[in-house]
Design brief:
Helix content: 40-55%
CATH architecture of the largest domain: 2-Layer Sandwich
Largest sheet: 5 strands, mixed
Pfam family, one: GTP_cyclohydroI
Distance between the termini: 33 Å
Radius of gyration: 22 Å
CATH class of the largest domain: Alpha Beta
Strand order of the largest sheet: 5-2-3-6-7
Strand content: 15-25%
Number of domains: 2
Bound molecules: zinc ion
Family: Belongs to the GTP cyclohydrolase I family.
Structural class: alpha+beta
Enzyme class: hydrolase
GO molecular function, one term: zinc ion binding
Function: GTP cyclohydrolase 1 is the first enzyme in the biosynthetic pathway leading to folic acid.
Number of strands: 7
Length: 311
């Protein structure tokens, strides 16, 4: 989806200097870097939107966005006029990026059908899944009719729906208005959030810990919402890199903080049980937005608070 921001994927503060050096040798990244440099000289707040906007493909949906995106805002207003039959919901959806299902939760056509289906359709879906699991059992050489396996297709179908229940959730419902104007502007860190996700390449689990930090721009989010946002995106088919970005982008969109930092450390069963069979390896991904991306000091403070370099 989005073009990667130049510092995404940084594993540790130690790598940042060499990372910068490498980026400077690269034409496209260095021009991007200049743009960041310009913005970083300015006070935080509004400008941080601009910096961050360059890291995602979709235009900002918030009316308060910078004038740079004016033409896109105008287009959205036109859309809204066209929708005037449904004015109230349409307006509120446009007013906050948090309410935009497609922007923040990215369900596909199939997941939207899943969310909106009737009881009968739900039952039909489970039946199809059961049939597929029975086929799988046959294909591995098992007898799906032996006692131990009789209820397995149904159990697995239900479990799979649970593992992917994040497709039925969206950030707006999760946040549910829990954003408070506290005038707070110090770093907030929630670390060691357990996540359980499914690797989209092998449909086997990867599990790990998410560490989230942000620096508010006056507004703070109810602290329990951060693990719930992590949970929502992890209960989908994922790759760790995208999961990291999904969480960071959602928090940034919903809260407009000075910066957001997300680090995930996890172990992938597709690596442990098959392939290279490295049982103790940990994969670390990070996504730094706003002031975490611009200021090494801020980034290092976060990394030392989450103690990610303890090994
Ligand atoms: Zn995998």
């Amino acid at each position: 989806m989005a073009p990667q921001s130049p510092t995404e994927g940084r594993d540790s503060p130690g790598s940042s200097a060499s990372e910068k050096k490498r980026k400077n040798n690269n034409g496209s990244s260095s021009s991007k870097k200049r743009a960041y440099g310009e913005a970083s000289g300015l006070p935080n707040g509004a400008k941080s939107h601009v910096v961050r906007r360059s890291s995602i493909s979709k235009p900002g949906r918030d009316q308060r966005d910078e004038p740079v995106f004016k033409h896109k805002k105008r287009k959205r207003r036109d859309d809204r006029d066209r929708d005037s039959g449904n004015a109230t919901t349409s307006v509120s959806r446009q007013d906050s990026p948090a309410i935009d299902f497609d922007g923040l939760s990215r369900p596909s056509v199939g997941t939207r059908q899943r969310l909106e289906e009737t009881e009968e359709e739900k039952a039909a879906r489970l039946d199809r899944m059961k049939g597929a699991v029975k086929t799988l059992l046959e294909c591995v050489g098992e007898d799906p009719n032996r006692e131990g396996l009789l209820a397995t297709p149904e159990r697995y179908a239900k479990a799979m729906m649970f593992f992917t229940q994040g497709y039925e959730q969206n950030v707006f419902d999760i946040v549910n208005g829990a954003i408070f104007q506290e005038g707070h502007s110090e770093m907030v860190v929630v670390k060691n959030i357990d996540v359980f996700s499914l690797c989209e390449h092998h449909l086997v689990p990867f599990t790990g810990k998410v560490h989230i930090g942000y620096i508010p721009n006056n507004a703070v989010i109810g602290i329990s919402k951060l693990p719930r946002i992590a949970d929502m995106f992890s209960r989908r088919l994922q790759i760790q890199e995208r999961l990291t970005k999904d969480i960071a982008n959602a928090i940034f969109d919903v809260l407009r903080p000075q910066g957001v930092a997300v680090v995930i450390e996890s172990s992938h069963l597709c690596m442990v049980m098959r392939g290279v069979q490295k049982t103790s390896s940990t994969t670390i991904t990070s996504c730094m937005l706003g002031c975490f991306e611009r200021r090494e000091k801020t980034r290092n403070e976060f990394l030392s608070l989450i103690n990610v370099n303890r090994h």
